[in-house]
Amino acid sequence: MKTQRWLSFNFFTFFFTWGVFLPYMVGWLTDGKGLTVIEASIIMGAGMIIRSLSTFLLFPEATKRSSLSSFMRYSALLSLIIVLFYIPSDSFGMLLVITVIFSLVYPNILAAMESSGSVLMQKENINYGKSRSYGSFGYIIAVLLIGIATYTWGENSIVWILILGLFLMVLTQFLPAPDTLKGPLHKSGTSGEGIYKTLLTSSSFITILLLTILLQGAHTSYYNYGFIYLKEIGVSAFYIGFILNIAVVSEIIVFAAADRLLSNTKVSTMFIIAAVGSTVRWLLIFLSPNVWMFVLSQLLHALSFGVAHYAFIKYISIRLPDEQIPAAQGMYAAFAMSLSTALLTFAGGPLYEYSPKIAFLGMTACSIPALILVLATRKKYSY
Question: 67-94 burial by CB neighbour count: b if 16+ within 10 A, else e?
Answer without folding.
Answer: bbbbbbbebbbbbbebbeebeeeeebee
